[in-house]
């Protein structure tokens, strides 16, 4: 299995995120991707290659142009204020108190285009997020050209980013961009399986009214877990997408065995959808030792996830999402990928 990786991810290194009334050091850090790269190499999974040059039009198939322009220019606008630290939002447009009109001032734009304050924008953020998306697109190209599988070692992650919003360490929705690329290049039907600990609210919202992209997510129950406002079991899609969205909210403390039972149900739904190709949003923050999560998975559970996904018998692109137990995420990712490869 080919891994697609760019060291440009290092250009994004936020200092702090807002959490419970305090600015705390970012959990989403460059060492995460380095660790995954090391363990993927050690596992002998296959070659590591650089991404193709980015096709910006592929981003615009998923994200609004005004949002892309905001991301591209936000750092310069922030710096023009004389600020030297990271840009962070502090004011948000809530339901009933908003119009769909982007503000002129960068402080307003930061809130208008975000869902929380876990998304610092730094000098290198645009280059890092576009190289992350390029990794996903290059992996998708490999799949279209016939590869049985590929691993896009994306950083920053993507599944909390909506068509027009950043949040939860995510700016561009790499998995959604890859899935749309697959649709645009020969796949009639695509399924996205999201095994990150957090609900893939961005991915769900992007495809919610579409019947050609199935979205299934296993995650901490949003009643008690970030991202809080989407991810319930009764969110089944709308319009043409009715029935093409499936959520499996699970309680804090969920064991590997209970997780794998829910995974079987998600995989049965995906098999019934009969996708041509599959994208896996691969977060390993379900690990028992993850510092911000509350599931109880261990190494062998991750290998089993890979084996069961392989049981779908479809060409599969793995896209890196979350996982914050830095010393262990590489091994856990390698378990999934070697489990898949058999
Ligand atoms: N400081 C992904 O896993 N809230 N994003 C963290 C603890 C945001 C997670 C609270 C969690 C976002 C891609
Ligand atoms: Zn997560």
From TrEMBL:
Belongs to the histone deacetylase family. The chain holds residues 67 to 408 of 409 of the full protein. Residues 28-338 form the Histone deacetylase domain. It comes from Novosphingobium nitrogenifigens DSM 19370. One of its GO terms (molecular function) is metal ion binding. Its cofactor is Zn(2+). Keywords: Hydrolase, Metal-binding, Zinc. This is Histone deacetylase superfamily. One of its GO terms (biological process) is epigenetic regulation of gene expression.
């Amino acid at each position: 299995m080919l891994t697609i990786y760019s060291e440009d991810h290092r250009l994004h290194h936020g200092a702090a995120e807002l959490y419970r009334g305090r600015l705390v050091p970012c959990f989403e850090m460059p060492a995460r991707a380095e660790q995954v790269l090391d363990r993927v190499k050690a596992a002998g999974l296959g070659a590591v290659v650089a991404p193709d040059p980015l096709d910006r039009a592929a981003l615009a198939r998923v994200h609004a142009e005004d949002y892309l322009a905001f991301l591209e220019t936000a750092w310069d606008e922030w710096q023009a204020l004389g600020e030297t630290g990271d840009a962070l939002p502090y004011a948000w447009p809530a339901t009933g108190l908003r119009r769909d009109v982007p503000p002129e001032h960068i402080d307003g734009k930061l809130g208008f285009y975000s869902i929380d304050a876990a998304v610092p924008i730094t000098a290198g953020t645009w280059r890092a997020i576009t190289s992350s998306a390029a990794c996903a697109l290059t992996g998708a190209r490999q799949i279209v050209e016939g590869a049985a599988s590929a691993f896009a070692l994306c950083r920053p992650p993507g599944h909390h980013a909506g068509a027009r919003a950043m949040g939860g360490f995510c700016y561009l929705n790499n998995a959604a961009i890859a899935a749309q690329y697959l649709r645009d290049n020969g796949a009639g039907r695509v399924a996205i399986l999201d095994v990150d600990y957090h609900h893939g609210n961005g991915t769900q919202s992007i495809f919610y009214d579409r019947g050609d992209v199935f979205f299934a997510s296993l995650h901490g129950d949003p009643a008690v877990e970030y991202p809080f406002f989407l991810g319930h079991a009764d969110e089944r899609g709308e319009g043409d997408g009715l029935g093409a969205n499936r959520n499996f909210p699970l309680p804090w403390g969920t064991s590997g065995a209970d997780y794998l039972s829910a995974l079987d149900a998600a995989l049965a739904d995906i098999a019934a959808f009969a996708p041509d190709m599959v994208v896996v949003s691969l977060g390993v923050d379900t690990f028992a030792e993850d510092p911000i999560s509350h599931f109880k998975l261990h190494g062998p559970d991750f290998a089993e996830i890979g084996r069961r996904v392989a049981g779908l018998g479809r060409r599969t692109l793995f896209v890196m999402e979350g996982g914050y137990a830095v010393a262990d995420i590489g091994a856990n990712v390698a378990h999934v990928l070697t489990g898949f490869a058999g």
